[in-house]
Specification:
Layout (H helix, E strand, L loop, with lengths): L3 H16 L17 E8 L2 E3 L2 E7 L8 E11 L5 E5 L2 E4 L5 E8 L3 E8 L12 E9 L13 H7 L8 E2 L1
Length: 169
């Protein structure tokens, strides 16, 4: 009987362990430390710093390592005056053969928006009075999210972001 007790203990422990594992393979990882937010950077001018056109902002509170930042530039409005957002990075091809590029990078503490071109951008509409929308969303571990990140409205819907009153920076 004494030899059977350790085997029963292992069997009961194994049964309890397996009963706690979800067998739903379609269950996605949910990042509970981030609440998706929208941030506006309104009507700003890029600054030329050491030959690089940029807009830098620092977060009041660092974001989590598991967060990602998506950047969109306002490129126009619809007939009912709703903004049209285009995901960055963007390359705009001009009719004269020149190009303007917009890009960004971010860390837990800040983000920087960049502009560059095949011509001098100083004093042009490409670096003055620009509006951007920044979305901070939880990164999805292990599985591809079923959202088109290039489509602003899809991202807002997927992450249930209230973008009616974004924070300004």
């Amino acid at each position: 009987m004494k030899k059977i007790i350790p085997f029963l203990f292992v069997a009961v422990f194994g049964l309890i362990s397996f009963s706690c594992v979800s067998d739903d393979d379609n269950q996605e990882y949910i990042d509970y430390d981030t609440y998706p937010v929208a941030i506006d950077v309104n009507n700003v001018n890029f600054e030329e710093i050491n030959g690089v056109w940029q807009i830098a902002r620092t977060f009041n509170t660092p974001i989590y390592d598991t967060d990602m930042l998506l950047a969109y530039m306002r490129v126009g409005t619809t007939n009912n005056n709703s903004p049209i957002w285009q995901q960055i990075p963007i390359t705009q091809y001009l009719s004269d053969g020149n190009e303007v590029d917009y890009n960004f990078d971010f860390s837990r503490y800040d983000f920087v928006l960049y502009a560059g071109g095949t011509f001098d951008l100083f004093g042009t509409e490409f670096v003055n009075n620009k509006t951007f929308r920044i979305l901070i969303v939880p990164a999805d571990y292990g599985k591809n999210a079923t959202v088109d990140y290039s489509n602003y409205d899809s991202v807002v819907e997927f992450y249930n972001i209230d973008d009616s009153n974004p924070t300004s920076m």
